[in-house]
Design goal:
The protein has 135 residues and is mainly alpha-helical. 59% of the residues lie in helices and 12% in strands.
Amino acid sequence: MSSRIAVVAVDTNVVVRLLTLDDQDQAARAERLFASNRIFLPQTVLLETEWVLRRLYGFERQRVIDALRNLIALENLQAENEQTARLALDWADEGLDFADALHLASSRKVGHFATFDAKLRMRMQRLGEPYVFEI
């Protein structure tokens, strides 16, 4: 990439290379992209990155949460729905599955979230978030 682009949205594989450094060439290219551009991180990429790091790479839960927090804290990175992402990471820190936490954080503004998952409902009530209910 020879010139700076205003904003570049990144795919999961770019983020994973940046965070794992498991392919030196691709990791270096990802680092250059991040260093020389403003980056947009779609919420779907954040969700998929968490899954890939945890399930495919076997990263411990806290390592994944910390890596994603550090990623969205980058000065030149704009996360889609950043407040939602931060809330989901906070809830994941409290023991919620990250995907559930992101679904809930994304839905919070409508006031109610229906689920058959009794454990999820109880966890959210313990966190002071009673808007999750069973149907």
